[in-house]
Amino acid sequence: MREFVITTDNMADLPDEYVEQNNIGLLSLSYLMEGVTYDKFHDLPYKEFYDKMRKGSMPITSQINPEVAKGTFGAYVDEGYDVLHIAFSSGLSGSYNSAKVAALELEEENPGCRVVVIDSLLASLGQGLMVDKMVQMKKAGKSLDELAKWAADNISHVCSYFTVDDLFHLFRGGRVSRATAFIGSIANIKPILYIDREGKLINIGKIRGRKKSLVTLVDYMEKKMGSYRDKNDTIFISHGDCIEDAEYVKKMIKERLGFEVFIISHVGPTIGSHSGPGTLALFFMGEEK
Question: 118, 144, 219, 234: which has the fewest C-beta neighbours closer than 10 Å?
C-alpha cells in the first residue's frame, strides 16, 4: 500500500505552525489588493490586511487553477505518494473543480497513483476541522480510503456559524442587499449565517448588537451538538482581526459547555475579503448543520 499525504488549501485558515507540524500540503488562493497580488508565498500580515480594509481597500480574490493544483499534487506523486486533498467548498468557489481536474490528469498520466479530492462543502476552520480529523486518523494508522469514507459520512455534521461586524462587505459579495446593509448598519444589526449542506453561505438571523450576536453563536452550538457532543475533542474559532471577541466566545463555551481544547486562528485574507474585519466564526461537530 502506497503512503499518502494530506493536502488542503489556505481557505482552511489553519495556523501556520499547525500546517508545518503536521506536514500538510497547501494550495493557495490569491487576492489582489491595491494593485499587488498576494498568496501564501507573498502575503500581508493579518493586521495590515484588515487595517487596509478598514480604510477602504477592497481586495479581489481568485480561485486556484488546475495547473497550480497539478503542480502541487504532482510533486507528491513524483515522490511516490498518493494524495488526499480536502478542498474549499464548491458552493463558494471553483477551486474544488480545479483540484478535481488536476487529480484526474495525474491519475491518467501516472497509472497506479491515487489523488482523491474531497469537496469539504465548508470554509475557514470548518474546513480546518475536517483536515484535523483526517490528520488524527492518519496518525492512528487509518488508510486513505478510511479517511475518505469518514469525510463522506461526516461532512454534513460539521457545523459552521458566523457573524460579521459590517454588513457592507456582505453586500459587496451579494449576500445582502444595499438597503439591508444600510439599514442594518444604522440599527446595529448583526447577521447570523451558516454554511448549508450544499456548501453555500446562508443568512439565518438578525441580531441587534455585537455581544448578543456572539452569544447567539454559542446558543446555536449548544442546540446543534446534540448526541454529537462527545465527538468534539477540539472547538474551532476563527476571527477577522478581533481576537478579544474570539476569546470571549471561547470563555462562554468553556463556562457553559465545559470544553477545554480550542484552535483559534485568523480568517485569512481570501475569505476575509468577503466577510470583512470583525468576522467571528464558530465550528463544531453536531447532529445537523
Answer: 219
Q: Does residue 213 share a domain with residue 148?
A: no
Task: Specify the pLDDT at position 284.
Answer: 98
Residue 183 has pLDDT above 60, yes or no: no
Using CA atoms, how far apart are residues 203 and 278, in angstroms rounded to an integer? 17
The three cell numbers locating residue 274: 468577503
Alpha helix positions (H), the chain: 16-21, 46-54, 66-78, 95-109, 124-139, 144-154, 167-172, 178-186, 210-225, 243-257, 269-275
Same domain, 168 and 216: yes
Taking residue 17's Cβ as centre, other Cβ atoms within 10 Å add up to 8
User: What is the pTM (predicted TM-score) of this model?
Assistant: 0.93
Which residues sit opposite 205 in a β-bridge?
A: 192
pLDDT tens-digit profile of 51-81? 999 998 989 999 899 999 999 999 999 999 9
Number of domains present in the structure of the chain: 2
- 3-class SS of residue 232: coil
